[in-house]
């Protein structure tokens, strides 16, 4: 009898796992159906392109957060880091534009990638070498990055030079074969991240570190190295998002990226990645980012809930997602 029960449990487990993996996409489909019911223009080509393009920034950063969270850590500084990297990039491009012209955009992008990686490295070293809890460490750097961009902008904004706006514009507003450029960049980031996470030794070690750090160490895995690298990947993803984001507003302000850490963590969690680490769902993360942007868009199109309550709705979503994880487990 017990053997039969064991076999039944073994046959049910894969179904439960498949349900957990499909949950973000089912939720996204329900949001789309709800959007169609509440507003006929929700599924218009223009609106869908707008939702997908606007979700690209959160999706790219959330890809990096998937590495960090699956390794057993957390990063609360991504929104502030985004503002800081954006400010550094714009200052660099403005300084180089008189001599390099439009080529200053390329140099600014490279500087942004280096600054993002450096910020991620700092976070990683504070957590691993400093042995400070990720929540506290990144809470501290969140304040530092936000203070730096406020100081750099003198409490105002850092606008991009007008001569650079037109050549930079296609990176956000352009498209290739009808697909917005930010979406193509997001797809490329997801493909590279998926290969690293699911097809390389580092990806397996990242999961091992998040699943059980002590066992991973006994198995010869450098948990500190794995987690530091995850933070660097997070910083690179923030920089890539910043590169795509700058043409949208053409300036960096102290409020740039505000509350993005909430959206990023929410996208990762509702996508199926365990907040305690050990499991990662990249496609679910992307679906989570789409869900958040679709809900925000629907709140703007309909009059059911004020658009000023978007952050409150996102907070409710992350709580419900955590309850769902507990129920499934």
Automatic annotation (TrEMBL):
This is ABC transporter. It is found in: Cell membrane. It comes from the Bacteria. The keyword Transmembrane helix applies. One of its GO terms (cellular component) is plasma membrane. It holds the Pfam family BPD_transp_2. It is a multi-pass membrane protein. The lineage of its organism: Bacteria, Pseudomonadati, Pseudomonadota, Alphaproteobacteria, Hyphomicrobiales. The chain crosses the membrane at residues 22-42, 48-69, 105-127, 134-152, 172-198, 229-251, 257-275, 282-302, 308-328. One of its GO terms (molecular function) is transmembrane transporter activity. Keywords: Cell membrane, Membrane, Transmembrane, Transmembrane helix.
